[in-house]
Amino acid sequence: MTASESPVSPGTKRKFLRPAILAAGVVALLVIAHVFGLAERLGELRVWIESLGAWGPLVFIGIYAVAVVAAIPGSAITILAGALFGSLLGVVLVSVAATFGATLAFLISRYFARETVTHWLSRSEMFSRLDAMTERHGAVIVAITRLVPLFPFNLLNYGFGLTRVRLGTYIFWSWLCMLPGTVLYVVGSDAVFTALAESKVPWGHVAVAAAAIALIAVLTILVRKYMKAKNMEAGG
Q: How confident is the model at residue 223 (pLDDT cuts 50, 70, 90)?
């Protein structure tokens, strides 16, 4: 290696890895949707949901909440919401369902299965870090960890139940700080399936999704600066 060459650090690689994975995922979604005609199939599913009347959205919320409690990744269901219900209603339903499911997991952890969850998470280094951060910095950690994916979503739901965070604080900050990501996934998926169904780009949806990405990026930077400052204060 010459003097002008420098090795690429693992941190630099990770910065480019997530955007690359996201782009690859979008391309894969477009290809799969085109090959299997998902736009038409989802249209049929949407008709079935609508045929349930007022029960349709409630059934979706119930399924989503159960998936969260069962620690099933909710990204696929979130994307499905955009295709089934459109941007506005999809965001509302996913926001309510994700918060409801996260609250149920929190309550199960705190009041019904504390010993089991403690045993489950006791060997997790990530939970030890979460517990220590919550003890030092309080409820603000709820907001930070929802905005920046420092810990797996399902681990957070049960892990916070073992901390001293108040239920109301947990619910409010979880809902608020999960909202930007919800908007991005739901509006983004709505844009993709609208483009496939109508053969034109819904620029309004694209603009909203782009704004959500920008907001998440800015908040991530601010959160990391905050955490860095707190670490410096704690060490100083």
A: confident
pLDDT tens digits for 20-67?
554 555 556 556 555 555 555 655 666 777 788 888 899 889 888 988
Tokens 């979460």 — which residue? Answer: 130
Task: Give the torsion sign (CA, 214, 219, 225, 231).
Answer: negative
Burial 94-108 (b: 16+ CB within 10 A, else e): bbbbbbbbbbebbbb
With left for phi above 0 and alpha for psi between -120 and 50, is residue 53 left, alpha or beta?
left
Q: How far apart are CA 22 and CA 27, in angstroms?
A: 9
How far is the C-alpha of 185 from the C-alpha of 87, rounded, in Å?
9
Chain-centroid distance of CA 91 in Å reads 12
> From CA 221, how far away is CA 171, in angstroms rounded?
24
176 contact partners, CB below 8 Å, separation of at least 6: 143, 146
Phi, psi for 70 (deg, rounded to 5): -80, 5
The alpha carbon of residue 195 and the mean position of all alpha carbons in its chain are separated, in whole angstroms, by 24
CA–CA gap between residue 234 and residue 98 (Å, rounded): 33
Report the predicted TM-score, pTM, of the whole model to 2 decimal places: 0.72
Phi-psi region of 18 (alpha: psi -120 to 50; beta: other; left: phi over 0): alpha
80-108: per-residue pLDDT in tens?
Answer: 898 888 999 999 999 999 999 999 999 98
